[in-house]
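Re: that chain you flagged

S.,

Sorry for the slow reply, it's been a week of failed gels. I finally had a moment to sit down with the sequence you sent. For the record, here it is as I used it:
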Amino acid sequence: MEVGETARSTGLERLYHYERFNPEYLRDTLVNQRIHCSDPAALNDPWDCRPWFDEEVLDDPSAVDALFDFFFASNPTAEVSEAEKRASRAHAHRDRHYSRQILNRFSEDFLKVIPNRWRIYCLTPFPDSTLMWSHYADNHRGICLEFALGHPLLGSAQKVEYLSSYPKWSPQSLFDGSSQRVLLTKSDDWDYEQEYRIIGLRPRPEMREHPLFLDGDYLRLPDCALRAVIIGCEAEFDKVSDVMRRNAPDLEIRRAVRSPLKYRLEIVSVGGP
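Prediction finished late last night. Pasting the structure tokens below so you have them in one place:
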């Protein structure tokens, strides 16, 4: 299930999630001990989690066969005889235009599969990133959740790979146990985030209970996983701390403080609510 380097294997002890301050959203996190995972189809990077399979794979006859194997396997209700399958494969080997059409259809269909199968929760090792506070925490008016990694749920967060060139995805990548890699690859324009992702899974009847199984779009937090809430330097401190006082009185509050003489943030503890 894990295809990238996990947070646990890197020796990290904490990961952080930036978000806007929404009182009801924060209350739900604190009271119900759950985190909301994002739809991969709704991310801010138009290439993120939207793989398109490269036509060059069609130069490899085995890749063409793998493409058709998946195509037929993913349409089990279609009444296609073995003779028809063999004829389709033979046609694809002879006609590049035909195989390209199938490959493009496969890419389009896989884009629909992703949001139906997975949700993601984005984290980073850094609570003091000026850009992250600006981009994901409402221009420093939001909050940052601090998590400990002692439980399999948080420890399973996988490191995102940043590339300078778009990867050459192939249908075979879905058969070698690394299909989640399409959720863990981004342009190196984003490498300042040093992102880790928890990949939530839609439950399947044939699979046993697992900490990464989604309940709707949520994952259940283990006890003591959420260690603190960091309040942005431009946030309304009293409003955030009031939500915490009412719903998680023992949870630590920290605050991002703007250094007056340096381009940096300091994360300071201000105690409990």
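What I noticed first: DSSP finds eight helices and twelve strands in the chain.

Talk soon,
D.
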